[in-house]
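All the exercises in this workshop are built on plain-text protein records. A record pairs a protein's sequence with a compact description of its fold. Read left to right, the C-alpha cells trace the chain's path through space. Once this layout is familiar, the rest of the handout is easier to follow. Here is such a record, shown just as it appears in the course material:
>
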Amino acid sequence: MRDAVLGVRSAVRTAWARRADDLGHARRAALALCAGLAALPLAAADDAKQRQDLTAVIALQGKPCGEVVRLETLGENDYIATCKDGNRYHVYVNQQGRVVVDKK
C-alpha cells in the first residue's frame, strides 16, 4: 500500500512539475511577444529617421527627390530609397567609404 501511495505522490509531483514548466514557457513567450510589440514604435521611429537622413543624402548629391517615402534595407549602409516624386535611388557606402547615390 505504501508503495502505491508513494507512486501516486510521485506521479502528482511530476504532473505539477510539467505544468509549472509549461507555464514557464508560456510566460517567456508572453514576455518575448510584449518586448517585440514594445519595440515596434522604436523601429518605426528609426525608419522615419532613416528616411529623413536619406532624403538629406540624396539632396546633398544633387539628385531630385523631395522626400523619401519608402525605404528598403539591402544591408548595412545599403538602401533603395523611393522618393515622393517617383525617383528611386540605390544609396550605399562603397569600398572607399564614400556615399554613392545611383538612380535606379
